[in-house]
From TrEMBL:
Record-linked SUPFAM superfamilies: S-adenosyl-L-methionine-dependent methyltransferases
Domain of life: Eukaryota
GO MF annotation, one: S-adenosylmethionine-dependent methyltransferase activity
Keywords tagged on the record: Membrane, Transmembrane, Transmembrane helix
All residue ranges annotated as the Methyltransferase type domain in the record: 75-172
InterPro entries, per database record: Methyltransf_11, SAM-dependent_MTases_sf, Thiol_S-MT
Transmembrane intervals: 6-27
Gene3D superfamilies tied to this protein: Vaccinia Virus protein VP39
Coiled-coil residue windows: none
Annotated protein name in UniProt: MET7A protein
Entries under Pfam families matching the protein: Methyltransf_11 (PF08241)
Amino acid sequence: GASVLLLRGCLVLLAFPIYLLSFLGLWEPFCRKVFFPFILDKIGAAHDKKSKKYKLELFRNLSDFRSPSGQLRLLEIGTGSGSNFQFYPSGCKVTCTDINPHFQEGLSKNMKKNQHLHYEQFLVAAGEDLQQVPSGSVDVVVCTLVLCSVHSVSRTLKEVLRVLRPGGAFYFLEHVAAKHSSWKYFWQQVCYPTWKLVFAGCCLTRELWKDLEEAKFSELKVQHIRLALPWTPIEPHIVGYGVK
């Protein structure tokens, strides 16, 4: 515990300008509008390379959840720049949501690259509050690297279940807390406060598989995986889907 506090203090000193900007109320708007979209584009590209084979496997059965009419209505929470579009089946009707509206450049680029999809609308909304989406109106909800930063995981999962039609599915790929006895978990604890501030509320030590198990899915498939990201604290991951 003492070692964690000491090393946390060292990180605070290193990141003091950011803490000062946060105290003055200047960091959050700069982070949301400039820093986070930029850094997510850079880190996201590396993460996408590592996770591509898992996403290909994860999303290969999306078409199984088409509605009786044959349509596949998909809602993505925390769309960001749209890096998941490439994995969605042709003709899929996509509604994008994100709490941060400043991903336009990357989002437009990925929309142009993936014209096999029908883009319905973009909603500025938090995962805990999807009131603009009618209950039971979508076949699939997708959420990747987002549950780490929502204010309430349980409320987000309640909203997921509300907007899904019966028989619809929730797909996820998220980084989670490492084993408590590991060095990785030790460094997650050290980095936690500064990482959360710098990376727009991203929490390193959430045991998200427990939240998913507590949600009322009729069927839940969760796989614990490693993406070989040795220089970052966002490891390990879980991947899978739950059926309403």
